[in-house]
């Protein structure tokens, strides 16, 4: 015997929420894949300075997002099917998966908040090391100039975050492209430290908005799934 009345409304409401949840999982998966293959991040984070690889902390977070998006799509499908079939077993499994996924999202959010400044800091340190090697012209032992030029061309910046480096004319013709040496940049230098901060803070902002929206949907789904599960149990008694 199927559910009736308010419980039936909750059934279709849960189905609708799960469909949105499934779509959100697809969006997060798509955004994560876009961030993974975005030209700005790939050009910078695939760089190698001698034997040292660019910091990959950002990519760790991206791989977590890819996994979360795929799991969300699976859990969303499970919730839709469980709601339509009015299966207590599937709804119970769905609720358990939601709790685990919610806990993982909270843990990932804490990890991201703790490491949000460290990601940019590590990349800036990597840039500074390459910049120092480029100034010392260690072309025979490292690829510092190539690394610095990639930063400058990708981020449209020129020089590190210090006044002495920003106004020194000796290295600009060699390390900065012509589009970076504009009148605006001479008056107000567009240093690479600032551009690196903007790059990662902008992407983390997008991730944070998506995570908050998904967390709200998950809370509603957990409540609705329990109410529907109780309604199915009560309707089977009669």
TrEMBL record:
It is found in: Basolateral cell membrane; Membrane. GO terms for biological process: adaptive immune response; regulation of cell population proliferation. One of its GO terms (cellular component) is basolateral plasma membrane. It comes from the Eukaryota. It is a multi-pass membrane protein. GO terms for molecular function: lipid binding. It holds the Pfam family Tetraspanin. The chain crosses the membrane at residues 12-35, 56-84, 90-114, 204-228. Disulfide bonds join 157-192, 158-176. Keywords: Adaptive immunity, Cell membrane, Disulfide bond, Immunity, Lipid-binding, Membrane, Transmembrane, Transmembrane helix. Belongs to the tetraspanin (TM4SF) family. This is Tetraspanin. It comes from Podilymbus podiceps (Pied-billed grebe). The lineage of its organism: Eukaryota, Metazoa, Chordata, Craniata, Vertebrata.
